[in-house]
């Protein structure tokens, strides 16, 4: 089954063709990073306009690269939630038009389900059930993947997402957008014990987490140093901050693995590219005898291949849509509108 997949939830326009949920025939991406870097972050209106300009050409490019004809496309999939609403609408409307013109099924895919499915592309042998840590710019959660389309959220951030905190701290430190990647590079040269930063403690739900206190403490430290003329050890601050994020995530993942008895752990989302978090998760899982799936960096960020992968299983479960499909800025991975 050849699925034409569309992803436009933020600042990457992407079109892929994925076969049977496991084989990427092509994944075409038009990045907007350099444009948004001027503003220090994503400007939603600009992102939407750039999606409009890029999406048709990418779809045509995807067909050309694979040598497939339009008749050989079996379904059209698209990210319909969550994301920047204007950006998501561009992808949804294009996908609806494509499905209508081709006379093919339309498959709506939740963006975070797509991130989880990126692991199916990197690890063809991976099958549910397994535990997944999702860490991205907008979401941080621990998900029990019971089947390809049946999932349970064990814990989530109560406020800011880990990725958003990385980008915000990086921006205040004067690092180029996206700040998380630059912060990771700096942290590798620093002392993670030099600065004392808070870690959120387990609450009523031991798997829930919080990052707003860590973000605030880090920003206050930076602003205070600027006000009194104190020179900060930037690499060590980055290392200390990254350690605090990892110390919030990893123990909760370990506890979830112990409680659920899962023997496979997948990691998904842009923050899964962070070197410290990857290393800490690998170490903890190896100590428990748990198999770990860490996708390559190319599949950690937003891409359309992951949408095509999840779409295959959504289609098998009968989850298709008609021309009334709408876009949503917020929606639970379980399907409920937040």
Can you lay out the helices and strands and say which pair or pack?
Blueprint: E1 2-7, E2 12-19, E3 23-31, H1 33-37, H2 44-66, E4 75-81, H3 85-102, E5 106-110, H4 111-122, E6 130-135, E7 140-145, E8 151-156, H5 162-172, H6 179-187, H7 212-228, H8 234-260, E9 264-268, H9 275-288, E10 291-293, H10 305-316
Parallel strand pairs: 1-4, 4-5, 6-9, 9-10
Antiparallel strand pairs: 1-2, 2-3, 6-7, 7-8
Helix pairs in contact: 2-3, 4-10, 5-6, 5-7, 6-8, 8-9
Labels describing this entry:
Nucleotidyltransferase, domain 5; 10 helices; five-stranded mixed beta sheet; 18% strand; 10 strands; alpha/beta; 2 domains; 338 residues
Verbal overview:
With 338 residues, the chain is an alpha/beta fold. It has two domains: 131 residues, 2-Layer Sandwich (Nucleotidyltransferase, domain 5), CATH 3.30.420; 167 residues, 2-Layer Sandwich (Nucleotidyltransferase, domain 5), CATH 3.30.420.40. It is built from ten helices and ten strands. A five-stranded mixed β-sheet has the order 3-2-1-4-5, with helices on both faces. A five-stranded mixed β-sheet has the order 8-7-6-9-10, sandwiched between helices. Helix 2 packs parallel to helix 3, helix 5 crosses helix 6 and helix 5 packs parallel to helix 7. The longest helix has 27 residues. The chain is globular and about 65 Å long.
